[in-house]
Write a structure and sequence with these properties.
four-stranded antiparallel sheet, alpha+beta
Length: about 140
Amino acid sequence: MSILSMLVVARDAAEAKRIASEYAVSDTAIDIHGLQYEAIAALIDVVTDSGYEVAFHDLAAAANDDSDQWALPLPADLVERLAGASVEDLVTWAAAWAASGESDAWDDDDIARLMPRLAASARIARERGAGLYLWLSL
């Protein structure tokens, strides 16, 4: 079974689902090509040092219904750190995320190219008073 996944800037989960279901990739809707919450939990851990298990549990708990589509809010701390990240931070985080083994569907170069896009989306979210959501659809 194939899973669609995006990271979306939105004010709430309903808006994130609406934006993502239009599947219009932009600075505020990034196609992450099937990365699931395990990979995003590893990203959260790498950037915020919150612990993989905590991040994984929080995402899994938010996706605990029988729906075929979810919009899971990402931690505000992740958004703030990405929004304020330096180029060096992004390079360090990309390498650590790649080394986590949770993003095996992507190679190191793909992850390195994704990080600045995530930072740009986080800055947009901060400017709009919005959040970042992981959207998944079966």
